[in-house]
Every structure is written in structure tokens, then in C-alpha cells.
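Note to self: keep these together.
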Amino acid sequence: MNDGTSDIAASIRDKAPLILVEIKKASSILLHCHPSPDPDSVGSALAMKLVLEKMGKSVTVIAGDSPIPDAFMHFPGAKDIIAKNYFEIDLAKFDLFIAQDSGGLSLISRKGPVIFPPNLYTIVIDHHATNSGYGKINLIEVSYPATAQVLADLFSVWGIALDEGVATNLFAGIYSDTGGLRYSSVTAHTYSVMADLAAHIHDISTLIRKMHSNTPGALRFQSIALKDIDVIGGKFALSIVPYSAISEYGFVEDEISAAMIASFMLSVPQWIASACGVEIEPGNFKISFRSSDEKLCDVSILAAALGGGGHKAASAARLSMSAEEAKKLVVAKAKELYNL
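Structure:
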């Protein structure tokens, strides 16, 4: 692992031995992916699974509420993920649950109230500032740009030797959650960690190329989402995709990437913040926010005002209303909060 151990957060150093104690006591461990999983969620779950199995543990990763996108199925170990959510498994079979990259209980499942049975010791590992700490042990390092980077440093403290599978999953998670190392939360230590991971991956260019792969359906969605962009105050770009478009073109979940659209719109230098909202089904609206200047436009404030959350540069929210209603609300809140 990386020799730059002095850059590892104190919280990771402090809690690493406590987490390891509980892992050693456990016989059967449960991991999960959050709803609409991204590479940080999937990569972190798979990296932890591979490390725990090296320790001789029985480990199960469940997909959670959403299927794992085909674009992530090349991640080492992805084919072993069980296509079940939290309420479809027998929790009595597990004695430890490690919830990763999930800022709240709703990120474990939105299909019902998440309650941990007495037999299930719960550890939370995350990097979201909105995480209140719902585990018995909570390792929440908000200065880190990705949960995968938290894990990279955690494994370093544990003295875990990297292999290609672990390194690939961690690299994918960090690369994705940093927008390809573009966000301001990226530090010199992040680059150091990424270099260490890259040294264990035999074909790094292919991995990165796959991170940017598309399908015909995804390209069509992108064309629809980018067709009509509203710009508020010359700084805030907004794309809205109503359910009528989703229904007309028959888009499936894997093809819909509001986060990608929001990130792409920031390629226009004058637009310092952006949002892409999608009415994924009638009255169910999901929106992703991005910012290229967190000091001028902290999008976590806007997301929180809409009942969501996330980071200053990348946040999200869900609204129970139509696309038209959601657009009016987002515009009004953006104008109010950012004086646009």
C-alpha cells in the first residue's frame, strides 16, 4: 500500500483497529450497494468483499433496491453480487453488516423502514457530510472525495497487500466520484492513492475507457437531456427530462444518467453549477446537482432545501411531483439561495 501514511485521516487511524476487531469476531458478513448504485458504491462493496474473503470470512454482497448496471459488470467480483434488496434476505444469517457509501438508512433501501435486528452489528463507512452515523461504529470521513479512498487508507492501516481485483474496484470508485479527478475535494493524497492503485492494474487505459463507455440508448437519453437547457442568471444550467420522454423512447434505468448530464454541462466555463432532473415515473422526480465552484455555489445547500443531500460539488434529491412542478421549485430555490 501507499507509503504516504502520514496523509491518512486521524479518524481512519483511530477506528481501523475497532473495525478490525468486529470483523475478526464475525463469521458471516453482509455488504450492499445503495439505490441507483454508482461505481463508488459497487467498487467499495466489491473491494471490501475481496479483502474480507482474504481474511477467511463468508461475505455476501446484495445489489439492494436497483440492479447493478451492465457498465459495472466488468468490476472484479461483480458477477457474485446477489440480486436482492435488504428486505429479501434472511438477516438472521449474518452477524455483521458493513454499510458503505450510504449517507442514511434510505440509502440502504427505500422499500421500507430499515431496522437492524439485535444479532446484526452494524458498521458505517462513508464520506457524506449528511451521514448522521447510524452504526455501532461510524467511520465517516467527509474530507475524502470517495468512500473508495476511505477504504484504500483503511486497508493501508490494516496492512493489506493490494491485488489487481481490490485495486481495480477502488480505482473505479475514486475515479468516478471525483469526476475523473476534477473536483476540488481531490487532494495530493488522492493522486498518491490513485497512483498506488494504478500500479496494480495491468491495463489502466482500458479500465478508464470502460468508465466512459456508452450504449445506443444512453446516447439517445443524453441527446434528449441536452436538447433543451435553461440557464438561470447566466450561471446555473438546468436540464429537465419529463416522464413523457422516458415513456416515448422506452429508456431503462441503465440508460438514464442525470449525474452524467449535470457534470457534462459544467464543460461550459460560464456555467458554475448545473442540475439534471428526470421524472423516472409519473410523480417521481430525481435530480442531480453539480458545481465547479463550491465557494460561489455549494449545491449541497440546494439539495438539502429540496430534501436531499450530498457534497458541495455533487448532490442529489428526490421529489414527489411532476417534472413541470419540480422545475418551477428548483428554479425558485436556486434563485433564492444563490441570488441568481
